[in-house]
Amino acid sequence: MSHPPFCMLAPLRSLLLGLIRPAALFGTALFGTALFGTAPFGVAGAADLKGKFVLEGIVPAPVPVVAPNAAIDFPGVKLFDESRIVDPATKAIAYITVYVRDDNFPVTPAAAAPAQVVVDNKAGRFNPHMSALWVGKQQLFFMNSDPVSHNSFFDLAGVNPLLTPGTRIPVNVAGTKPLPQAITCNIHTWMKAIVVARNHPYVGITGADGTFEIKNLPDGVEIEFQAWHEKPGYLKIPAWEKGRFKMTLKAGVNDLGEIKVPVAILN
Question: How far apart are CA 194 and CA 183, in angstroms?
């Protein structure tokens, strides 16, 4: 078989060097990922998203738990329905989750998360009430710190273990669903926890101060986010149809500021 003369190979060599040299200077984000599709442009994970959810209207009073075994199993403990937690002074809303809607969204090299996620049965409630789980990267554990037995029914993992006092067991989660999933206790029926299980770490959950943060997102690409709360499900505030919004983030902190949630949505 004949080969092209050397004089024809020289221009090809120059062209290849012209592509490789910028990749060496700027890293895989320019060459490897853009050409071969392992992640979108801006893979460095240079962008963060944060915001604060505040109730618009009169803060509803906490709803106490009324159950025959509440006072027996947890004497002296004041238990409340955790599906709607709002700070009466600041109107900050806890337990709203904001996450990247695309479950196969490429993960940036800077993304990180703790190795374990622990959901504890403690003082007649699941602690924490809401958790994020990076499926395939983080190991979920169920734990019981109470002096009485609990069970933890978690349909996503297909488990319902009985947890005697002092128990700690691993729970294997192999898949995800589009929306957050519940853990419940059939023995203490008021108990409920929420797990936001995704194939990526881009999940934010508001604390008692109403704030959330998602770190190490790619900049320069449009991302669709989902906002969700236990009461209404999709957090359909006026600007977000089905609780969804799209943003192209810049490098650094991207602050949504205060996001007003009408009280009617949480009732």
Answer: 6
